[in-house]
Write a structure and sequence with these properties.
alpha/beta; 6 helices; binds 5-O-phosphono-beta-D-ribofuranosylamine; two-stranded antiparallel ribbon; seven-stranded mixed beta sheet
């Protein structure tokens, strides 16, 4: 399965995907790493792995239509069949979501539908979890649709919230789980072990 990874930051989930491929645990190929940030660490990871590292941002275009047309060209040129958002902080244009229906995943550092939606990213998520008094948190892989963090859930895994947790200590515990479940979710799609019934996703 030919994957296009989108990232805005350091790219630790991207690295986890590459590690799974290199260990022979994920039958897939990363065809490109695309970032909206020219200084994203994920671009450097791509370059050091000989993967096309592409900086593309809506800011470079007069409107969303020209941006999404360019994005679709880039995806087509690189034969991308499946998109993995990995620490990507921008909305995917609706035109791309439509063409890649049920073939775009995102990883979120909380148990959706709780603690999700616009503005819920990075440390804001963990601050909200701690402020809520929740005793568990975790990570969610979900299908991307036209709204932030709302698409059907594919895999979730929980972590305990400890008494003296800070957003940083909780983020670290959740990130370790993200690196486990993202490759697992992609593997299920790559091996055609996913069924989607009435908007619910089941892996078998
Ligand atoms: C992670 O917490 C991920 O859940 C969120 O972005 C954060 C950074 O991801 N989507 P990465 O280290 O850049 O992969």
């Amino acid at each position: 399965m030919n994957i296009g990874v989108f990232a805005s930051g350091r790219g630790s989930n991207f690295q986890a995907i590459l590690n799974a491929i290199q260990r022979g645990e994920l039958p897939a190929r990363v065809m490109l790493l695309l970032s909206n940030r020219s200084d994203a660490g994920a671009l450097a990871i791509a370059r050091s792995n000989g993967i096309p590292a592409i900086h593309l941002s809506q800011k470079q275009f007069p409107d969303e239509n020209s941006y999404s047309a360019k994005l679709l060209d880039v995806l087509r040129e690189h034969d991308v069949q499946f998109i993995a958002l990995a620490g990507y902080l921008k909305m995917v244009p609706a035109a791309v979501v439509r063409i890649y229906r049920n073939r775009i995943l995102n990883i979120h550092p909380a148990l959706l539908p709780s603690f999700g939606g616009p503005g819920m990213y990075g440390h804001y998520v963990h601050e909200a979890v701690l402020a809520s008094g929740a005793k568990v948190s975790g990570a969610t892989v979900h299908i991307v649709d036209e709204e932030y963090d709302r698409g059907p859930i594919v895999i979730q895994k929980t972590v305990p919230v400890e008494q003296h947790d800070t957003p940083e200590t909780l983020a670290e515990r959740v990130l370790a789980v993200e690196h486990e479940i993202y490759p697992q979710a992609l593997k299920a799609f790559a091996e055609n072990r996913v069924t989607i019934e009435e908007g619910f996703v089941w892996i078998h």
